[in-house]
Design a protein that fits this description.
By secondary structure, this protein is an alpha/beta fold. The protein has one domain (3-214). The chain is built from 13 helices and 10 strands. Strands 4-3-10-9-5-6 form a 6-stranded parallel sheet, sandwiched between helices. The protein has a two-stranded antiparallel ribbon with strand order 1-2. Strand 5, helix 6 and strand 6 (131-135) form a beta-alpha-beta unit. The longest helix has 21 residues, at 230-250. The protein is globular. The two termini are 23 Å apart. The model has no long low-confidence stretch (mean pLDDT 89).
């Protein structure tokens, strides 16, 4: 059975892949739209200066930990441990497979340089029965705090009547966009924020080797293949852990946290 964890005011669902499959099937056959977020350390850093963003994250129907930093933070700051971690890439591929088997429709929205089209082609190749459509980022306007959704975009999505919408935008903008769009597409059963997942699925960015993923070293791989992301990676791998350490000191559990993190590594 799944359980909940909460750090920095943000809740996470600890759920297995099999449990998620059952949940997605239930949602796809339901009548209400559900929202999935995949918060990572950058999300949690943003909540420390933007409580409204934290409240927004907690309104999702499923919150999946994406990033090894979240796993260790839960161990350090609570008396529990995160058993299941799910990346945006893996969750989107899982949804695509379910859609292909159940005759449901998927729309990929966002990304740069037609990456959504390339990702759609890659998913069709992997799942030949999948009904998937890509929509270019050019329809979307607004900055990270405000999002404007045009009638043209709504009409474009509604033409396909998707059951699942995967949104690939910068975090913050992505989550606000999802809450707005989910209320305007009647056919939607699931909306998920996938960030840079389309880059990986499309093949424009090579995914980290399996051994690196299993050992939580995706961040090092991103440094190697995308040096321009060094500032973001620094925040996730240095700044975020420092905030976690500070919180353990405030709550007088530093040494307990150190032991738990070492044991869980």
């Amino acid at each position: 059975m799944s359980e909940k964890h909460k750090i920095f005011g943000v809740a996470f669902d600890d759920i297995s892949t099999n449990e998620m499959t059952d949940l997605f099937l239930k949602w796809l056959n339901g009548s209400q739209g559900k929202i999935i977020f995949t918060p990572n350390p950058e999300f949690l850093l943003k909540t420390r200066v933007d409580s409204g963003f934290g409240n927004l994250l907690n309104q999702s129907d499923l919150s999946l930990a994406d990033g090894i930093g979240v796993k260790f933070a839960i161990v350090a700051l609570t008396d529990k441990r995160l058993k299941h971690r799910h990346t945006g890439v893996d969750t989107l591929v899982q949804l695509a497979e379910i859609c292909s088997k159940t005759n449901k429709k998927l729309v990929l929205l966002g990304g740069k340089n037609s990456v959504s089209q390339s990702a759609a082609d890659a998913l069709r190749k992997q799942f030949p029965n999948l009904q998937v459509q890509s929509i270019d980022l050019g329809f979307i306007l607004g900055n990270s705090e405000t999002v404007s959704i045009s009638d043209e975009l709504i009409n474009e999505i509604n033409k396909f009547s998707p059951n699942v919408l995967a949104v690939a935008l910068s975090f913050g903008k992505q989550e606000r966009f999802i809450f707005k769009i989910s209320k305007q597409i009647p056919s939607l059963n699931i909306v998920i924020g996938v960030g840079g997942a389309l880059d990986t699925i499309s093949g424009s960015l090579k995914r980290a080797p399996l051994w690196m993923r299993k050992n939580g070293l995706e961040w090092l791989w991103r440094v190697i293949i995308e040096p321009r992301r060094i500032v973001r990676i620094f925040r996730a791998t240095i700044v975020f852990p420092l905030f976690v350490v500070w919180d353990t000191l405030k709550h007088q559990r530093f040494w307990k946290a150190v032991i738990k993190v070492v044991v869980s590594s």
